[in-house]
Design a protein that fits this description.
Helix content: 40-55%
Mean pLDDT: 95
Largest sheet: 8 strands, mixed
Low-confidence stretches: none
CATH superfamily of the largest domain: Butyryl-CoA Dehydrogenase, subunit A, domain 3
CATH class of the largest domain: Mainly Alpha
CATH architecture of the largest domain: Up-down Bundle
Length: 385
């Protein structure tokens, strides 16, 4: 299936292409330094990109999951770390816009801050002991009842966008009224007293995502900060909103493909009559790259297309979202490996972007659903379980 297919998809993908070229200019610098690309997010804000998923009634574009995924795949070709971080913000807003669990006044006020100021939000959920929150478990971060509100204490890891966040939705274990602790989330302004960012992020890939630890020491919030749980959702189905994350890795794989092809066309060793693109071995590696990207894109974007076109079939389609994530991340890893086999050892040089693409795509294995969960979901669907 070929994209773009609508005028909105054309617009959003073209916007992402323009921004990708701009953020690519300093991508290697931020990767090398592990620094956060503040100027990139300023550019995203000025272009209206950070408000893609904000509902139209609040000044955004109301982008659906397929539109976001198509745009993010293009943005990631410029810089995977910037695209991944932006995705966390966009999908959280998209999920809220679809399900509307928050009080409408709160959601409207937040959306207007995104449109006017480029306010960023992300979930602060992972913890050192907990690991991925998708696996379940009670957070070690606590929220204790105090007069007029709550005291929050804890440490969160893998908090992308940490240096630039205005808000975080902080998952906690509530301790109140002598009842058993239960999970709950709070909307915490990042400038609250007691909140600090510890610059712990020093990762193999996605080094410019600013995924530092967030420490909360006796942070006091009012009762209004306690967010409704899943029972507060008024409509919609949020399962689809993980898919744009997978699209980021597909985009990084696409950037690796583009670099390998350009290199093969231009590389002319003195021992050959023409460029290495004329060698059958190179052609076979490029062919495999093409097939891997084609396969992953067809499954991922096709599942999103069908999800929106056939809402009554979403329970039957859901396994395909897991398949799209599995293929996008694992195929991107294989693509970057093949791209390095096209360029040879020179592709490992830090003066070239391919080694960054090779590192960045490996971060995809950590996003839910993890491979074992995805395969279980796919297998159960096939077996009718």
């Amino acid at each position: 299936m070929h994209y773009p297919r609508t005028e909105r998809q054309v617009e959003f993908m073209a916007l992402a292409d323009r921004l990708a070229a701009r953020i690519a200019e300093r991508a290697a610098e931020h990767d090398r330094e592990g620094s956060f690309p503040h100027e990139a997010f300023q550019a995203l804000h000025e272009a209206g990109y950070l408000a893609l998923t904000v509902p139209e009634e609040y000044g955004g574009r109301g982008a659906d999951p397929l539109e976001v995924a198509l745009a993010q795949e293009r943005l990631a070709r410029g810089d995977g770390a910037t695209a991944l971080s932006a995705t966390m913000h966009l999908v959280l807003i998209g999920r809220l816009a679809e399900t509307r669990p928050w009080p409408e006044e709160l959601f409207a006020r937040f959306c207007r801050e995104v449109v006017a100021d480029g306010a960023l939000i992300n979930a602060a959920a992972s913890e050192p002991e907990l690991g991925s929150p998708s696996r379940g478990g009670l957070p070690a971060t606590t929220a204790t009842r105090v007069p007029g509100g709550w005291r929050i204490c804890g440490r969160k890891t893998w908090t992308s966008l940490a240096p630039a966040l205005r808000y975080a939705t902080v998952s906690t274990a509530i301790h109140a009224d002598d009842a058993e602790p239960r999970r709950a989330s709070f909307l915490v302004p990042m400038n609250s007293p007691g909140v600090r960012v510890e610059e712990t992020w020093d990762n193999l890939g996605m080094r410019a995502s600013g995924s530092h630890d967030v420490v909360l020491e006796d942070v006091l919030v009012g009762d209004e900060a306690l967010l409704p749980g899943d029972e507060g959702a008024k409509r919609g189905d949020p399962r689809v909103w993980g898919a744009p994350v997978a699209a980021v890795y597909l985009g990084v794989g696409g950037a690796a493909r583009d670099y390998a092809i350009q290199y093969a066309r231009e590389r002319k060793p003195t021992g050959l009559p023409g460029p290495i693109a004329e060698l059958q071995t190179i052609q076979h590696r490029v062919a495999e790259i093409e097939l891997l990207l084609l396969q992953a894109g067809a499954i991922l974007f096709g599942a999103l297309d069908d999800w929106q076109a056939q809402p009554e079939q979403r329970d039957e389609i859901a396994w395909r979202l897991a398949a799209g994530k599995y293929l996008a991340t694992n195929n991107a890893i294989r693509v970057t490996d093949l791209a390095l086999r096209v360029t040879g050892a020179i592709g490992l040089s830090r003066s070239r972007p391919l080694e960054r693409y090779f590192r960045d795509v490996r971060a995809g294995l950590g996003h839910p659903p993890a491979d074992d969960i995805a395969l279980t979901t796919i297998g159960k669907a096939a077996l009718g379980l």
